[in-house]
Amino acid sequence: MRWKWLFVFYWKRLLKSKLYIGASFSFFLLLAVRFTLFFTDPYNMESYGDIPHEVFMLVQIVSLFYIVWFYLLYSNELRYGVSSWFADGYRILLEKMSALLAVHALCQGIMLMMSCGVFSLVYLFVGVEPSDLYWSLLRFLAVYQFGPLVLTVLYGVIIALLLETKKASFFAMLLVWILTGPMTTELFIDLSKTVHARDWASLLFIGKHAIQRAYDSYIGFEVDRGGEWKWAAWFLSLVGLALLSSIRFTQTRKERNAVLKAFLVFPFLIVLTAYHSLQTNTKAFTRADQTTELEEYRRMPQTIKADLRYRIQSYDISLHGSRAVVRVALSQLETNRPTFQLYHLYPLHSIEADHQPVKFTRNGDLVTVWLPKRTSTLTFSYEIVDTALIPYTNGRIVLLADRAWYPKRRASHMYQAYEYQVAGTRAWDGAFTDQFVPNETYTFTLNVDGDVLFCNVPKRGTVYRGKAQAVTLIKGQGHQLVDQGYEITYPADWPHMAERAPTVIHQMEKTFRHVQQIASTAVSSLPNKIVFSSFGLSSFLANDHLVYNTNDLYGIDQYIMEQNFYEKILRLSVPPKGSRIMYNEWISLATRWLMQKQGLSVIDWSSKSEWFESQPSSVKKQIEAIYQAFQPLDVDQKQQCLRTWYANMDDGWTWDRIFEMMQEVNGVGGRH
Question: What stretches pass through the bilayer (predicted)?
Fold first, then answer.
């Protein structure tokens, strides 16, 4: 009964507090300001899934006011030692702490539901379709808004118990506010960049490692059991610290012993929850995990001995949970040491030939199988795990055809990293080696549990079966529609796609036809299955499906008017030829020709490819001369130059020869 009256007492105090109510009101006022700035921005990115990341800054701001209010409230009560006037004074002190915590948690629960309602209304207003995105939004706000704000009551109470009304308490509050806020990873970004998802140091951060990204296409918000277990570890740690801090207020030895016994349980619970957090943390949104993974590829030798004297007839793939079993039917096997490409971060449990385990070795993404005798089938058993390049979170996974998520007949790693110079500074870039998927086709049979959003192989009964160059499989959060005969898959946070899709598809078809006027394309026509994404996925083009990543700058309808759209279509459809610098400068000029074909008035003819700065001065002068010779040509002359350039581009094709060709075209008019 007394606890109930304490709860009511603190609830009334809270409602009458100008500081607490003002901080809570400011949270929503600042949120409204952020929404206003977002929607009035002429360069609106339309990355609606990332809007909830605004709560990190808001939580950081208001949490300071909460800490101060709880400190002042509790320290004033301790100042007069009222609890010591009663025989069960220590019990009263604990009841006050728990009642105050309960009141604050209730208030923050109300704010959580209000925040989720505001975000949901914004999503419905802009046209984001109903889906489990709204449920994962609630989980996201619960972990990164509700969780950190609930902890503020414990910060204030602990400081009050330790320092009471001493002046040093204000410095302590400021220090705690800085070190425990969700913006810590940004304040100490050099440190957070080095912390992996499953490093113990990640437990020091209550917020995300990279706060700017809250949503990834098809994977969804960063909500997993790891974040929830981490909050539980923080909560238990602070409750234990509060108990330990209050021990000096005990009045009897029995009370002190009881507190010490209770406190002994907390280290076990804290370690247990922290361990579960590290085991279930996702790597999908963590800077350090991706950096480390790319560094591994930079260190891998690019030239590796591989034996590909065999052919693959078919794949039988079984995916149940995270366990993958792939049966590969072989033909024309002319070696006892066949080499396959399989993602090196997937734990490979066993390889069997004729139902008997065989030895194998791994070198990066290349697996060499040691066969005692020739065989017609190999069975690979391995685990699908969460990594930076292929995230696997909450049962959601995007297995793209350009990834080595099943054994492939390849002699290279799945990902290639290369170095170049920008303004004299060393820079790295990379690409998946199957951006242009080989033309050979195989028969695929996929047995997959759970809901599949997209698969380029047709579904027949309970399995997916058919012929394809490679397989893309998406089990994630998204939507689909059919427009003009195209099957379109898009992220759950993209609005009004039924209205936008016709414009985008028309522009893609038109641009693809123009590209075919200057170069031979990897496929003859635009595939009828298209997967869109706004961040995280790579882009590639196969005979039966296209994966197109717009990057995180524009909405899909705005994107078609930008230079990057035309450059991306070129890079997707036109295979590289000749040297890297020559191919990139061809892409650069071809992009501007495509923009001119569309009648775009703002074209930067002086801009070169990113590889330009890494070239010697003599080569730079030659390239600049080519740009100067190319710009005054009319559209048809440019088309002829680009077509001749690409057709003849090889290791022997020189800049001088390109310049001469442009002068010849300019001299004869270049019209055919």
Answer: 20-40, 55-74, 99-126, 146-163, 170-189, 231-247, 259-278
| CA 44 vs CA 33, 48, 498: distances in Å | 15, 10, 20
Q: Give the mean pLDDT of 385-413.
A: 93
**Is residue 276 within 8 Å of residue 192, measured between CB atoms?**
no
CA atoms of 638 and 588, how far apart (whole Å): 13
The answer to whether the Cα torsion of 507, 508, 510, 515 is positive or negative is: positive
> Residue 97 and residue 549: Cα distance in Å, rounded?
51
Q: Which amino acid is at 495?
A: P
Give the closest residue to 160 by CA, choosing from 104, 81, 235.
81
Distance, CA of 350 to CA of 124 (rounded, Å): 48
The pTM of this model reads 0.89
Distance CA 256, CA 61 (A): 37
CB atoms within 10 A of CB 357: 12
Residue with structure tokens 């024309």? 332
618, with CB counted inside 10 A (0-12, 13-18, 19+), is exposed
Q: Return the number of other C-beta atoms located less than 10 Å from residue 390's C-beta.
A: 22
- In terms of Cα–Cα distance, which of 605, 594, 583 is closest to 639? 594
pLDDT band at 672 (very low <50, low <70, confident <90, very high): very low
Mention every residue, 6+ apart, whose C-beta is less than 8 A from residue 444: 314, 315, 317, 457, 464, 465, 466, 467, 468, 471
Chain Cα centroid distance, residue 290: 10
* pLDDT recorded at residue 29: 95
Q: Is the pLDDT of residue 558 over 80?
A: no
For 64-101, write each residue's pLDDT tens digit. 999 999 999 888 877 766 555 555 678 888 888 899 99
Q: Give 347-355's long-range contacts (Cβ < 8 A, gap of 24+).
A: 347/382, 347/383, 347/385, 348/380, 348/381, 348/382, 349/381, 349/382, 349/383, 350/380, 350/381, 351/378, 351/379, 351/380, 351/381, 352/378, 352/379, 352/381, 353/377, 353/378, 353/379, 355/379
Please choose, from the candidates 635, 622, 540, the residue with its C-alpha nearest in 3D space to the C-alpha of residue 581: 622
**CA separation, residue 21 to residues 11, 28, 59, 435, 620 (Å):** 12, 11, 15, 55, 63
Q: Where are the alpha helices (DSSP H) in 554-634?
A: 556-559, 563-573, 580-597, 617-630
Contact residues for 638 (Cβ-Cβ < 8 A; gap 6+): 589, 593, 596, 630
Q: Look at strands 529-533 and 486-491 and give their pairing.
A: parallel
Cβ neighbours of residue 367 closer than 8 Å, sequence gap 6 or more: 339, 340, 341, 342, 348, 351, 360, 361, 407
Distance of alpha carbon 257 from alpha carbon 247, whole angstroms:
9
d(C-alpha 205, C-alpha 182), whole Å: 7
d(CA 289, CA 447): 30
Please determine, for residue 418, whether its predicted confidence score (pLDDT) is greater than 80.
no
202-250 residue pLDDT tens: 888 888 888 888 888 899 888 888 889 999 999 999 999 999 888 888 8
Alpha-carbon distance of 366 to 360, in angstroms, equals 10
- Determine if residue 485 is left, alpha or beta; phi over 0 gives left, psi from -120 to 50 gives alpha, anything else beta: left
8 Å CB contact between 325 and 381: yes
- For 349, what's the count of Cα atoms within 13 Å in the CB-facing half-sphere? 12
